[in-house]
Amino acid sequence: PAELPPVRASADLPPQDAEALGTAVEVTVSPLRYRVIEVFGTTSYNCLFSVGVRNLTDEPQEVRMGFRATGAPTAVWEGDRPTALDPGERRELVLGWDGATPEEVELDEARCTGPVELTALGVAPG
Question: For the chain, is the Cβ count within 10 Å smaller at the N or the C terminus?
Answer without folding.
Answer: N
